């Protein structure tokens, strides 16, 4: 049996098959019905690595607690002997290579370089049959990934070549093919996934060659989440037999132009999903103007603005008022200046100052942007995080609540972002003693997150326990002898 046939057989057990489409290349298609919350596929990475920005993390599971550094190479961290043991065959080779590097070379070991080194070491272990090869875990699947080499500019090619040289210096294999490593860097750029925790905070990068077969949609029927380094794809809507499984590669809250730009830049394709084909239609123009455009000059009008054909400014499509171009530029400049200052104080960890400045940004954006504006939403998300740091729970709850109607508008049903925001809301309401509101918010959170995250992870068990606790408290408060006033 060929490796492709073996893959098809492994997938058919899960109700899936791989087919090819002239425009998109490979596609993952269902051969049975899936329902919201069903796991479509799960996969351990072929190679993975934690990213620097999130601090030191376990090389295997990305945990940040109880870390012990490998005493030999001083580069790898592990949270437990279980994680260390499970990585040992790979790390033994990696450690041997890393130990020999000079201090300068060690400094240049970016996560991408480490990831590529690990990819080659894993291939070696499989070729030498030191670790098993399976239908869904083999280097042939990495070979089958698209690399888009012909679409990459000269500068990027030079960079990949330099990175490939560095990988070769680390590995010290005389027979290694530098061009192939460079091509693999290009593959990683458009196929690797960012591994996130349950709260969708990035932890690392992983290459999942079967999950990579799944194509993108800006209105996907499935979602990719991670349990440690395990990638899990779940259905977010009913998916009938014979349908293509689709996930989103990017932040889908954005105008069609913004989404298409992000996809073109990072993944080098033009999206033709059900949302993107509406480009140029009135409803798409309207939605883009609401999400990324300006508000009406009249406070009481909720109309959206489009560029005036004479280029004097922007005209409200509801009341016909014109907002002058110069006035818009003036406010937009003020927003930008204040935002720069605010983000500078935030990066210094000066939360009090940052909160005051972001509130000024918010006021200015309220003058400038539509109430469903994504910029305004991002400012409020930022204020929510800052106020949480400052333990200002009431302020944080106020901002958390303000973001929810925007999330409901910009994210489709069963989107994890909405579930997580309800979870934050519920936690804050619980802290502030608003038990009934906490029950409502946590219930909303459970309804969404049980579909996207399943019910068995520690994260979900914690959420379910909190909801139960809130219900118990509400019942207790209702007893006549427990008068709270
Ligand atoms: Zn670990
Ligand atoms: Zn080591
Ligand atoms: Zn699209
Ligand atoms: Zn108006």
From TrEMBL:
Q: Which residues form the MYND-type domain?
A: 58-95
Note whether Zinc-finger occurs among the keywords.
yes
Output the Pfam families linked to this UniProt entry: SET, zf-MYND
**GO CC terms for this protein?**
nucleus
Q: Which domain of life is it from?
A: Eukaryota
Q: Which UniProt keywords apply?
A: Metal-binding, Zinc, Zinc-finger
Know the name of this protein? MYND-type domain-containing protein
Please tell me the species this chain comes from.
Aquilegia coerulea
């Amino acid at each position: 049996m060929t490796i492709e046939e073996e893959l098809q057989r492994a997938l058919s057990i899960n109700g899936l098959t791989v087919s090819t489409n002239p425009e998109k290349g490979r596609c993952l298609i269902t051969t049975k019905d899936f329902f919201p919350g069903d796991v479509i596929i799960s996969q351990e990475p072929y190679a993975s690595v934690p990213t620097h920005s999130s601090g030191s993390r376990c090389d295997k599971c990305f945990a940040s607690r109880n870390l012990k550094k490998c005493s030999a190479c001083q580069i790898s961290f592990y949270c437990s002997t279980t994680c260390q043991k499970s990585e040992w065959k790979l790390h033994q080779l990696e450690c041997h290579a890393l130990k020999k590097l000079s201090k300068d070379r060690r400094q240049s070991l970016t996560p991408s370089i480490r990831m590529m080194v690990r990819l080659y070491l894993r291939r070696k272990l499989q070729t030498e049959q030191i670790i098993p090869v399976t239908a869904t875990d083999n280097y042939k699947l990495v070979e089958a990934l698209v690399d888009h080499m012909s679409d990459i500019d000269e500068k990027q090619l030079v960079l990949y070549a330099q990175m490939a040289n560095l990988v070769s210096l680390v590995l010290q294999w005389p027979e290694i093919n530098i061009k192939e490593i460079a091509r693999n860097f290009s593959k990683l750029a458009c196929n690797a996934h960012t591994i996130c925790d349950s709260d969708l905070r990035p932890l690392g990068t992983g290459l999942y060659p079967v999950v990579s077969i799944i194509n993108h949609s800006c209105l996907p029927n499935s979602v990719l989440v991670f349990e440690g380094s395990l990638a899990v794809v779940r259905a977010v809507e009913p998916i009938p037999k014979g349908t293509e499984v689709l996930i989103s590669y990017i932040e889908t809250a954005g105008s069609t132009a913004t989404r298409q730009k992000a996809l073109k830049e990072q993944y080098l394709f033009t999206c033709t999903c059900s949302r993107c084909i509406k480009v140029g239609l009135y409803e798409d123009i309207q939605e883009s103007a609401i999400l990324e455009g300006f508000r009406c000059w009249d406070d009481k009008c909720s109309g959206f603005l489009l560029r005036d054909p004479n280029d004097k400014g922007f005209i409200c499509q509801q009341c016909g008022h014109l907002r002058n171009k110069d006035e818009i530029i003036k406010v937009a400049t003020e927003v930008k200046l204040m935002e720069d200052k605010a983000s500078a104080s935030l990066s210094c960890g000066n939360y009090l100052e940052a909160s005051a400045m972001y509130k000024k940004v918010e006021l200015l954006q309220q003058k400038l942007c539509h109430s469903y504006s994504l910029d305004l939403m991002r400012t409020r998300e930022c204020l929510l995080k800052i106020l949480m740091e400052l333990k200002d729970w009431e302020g944080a709850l106020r901002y958390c609540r303000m973001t929810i109607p925007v999330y409901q508008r910009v994210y489709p049903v069963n989107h994890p972002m909405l579930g997580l925001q309800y979870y934050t809301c519920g936690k804050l309401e619980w802290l502030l003693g608003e038990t009934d509101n906490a029950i409502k918010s946590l219930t909303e959170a459970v309804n969404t997150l049980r579909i996207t995250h399943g019910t068995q992870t520690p994260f979900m068990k914690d959420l379910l326990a909190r909801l139960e606790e809130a219900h118990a408290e509400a019942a207790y408060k209702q007893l006549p002898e427990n008068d709270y006033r």
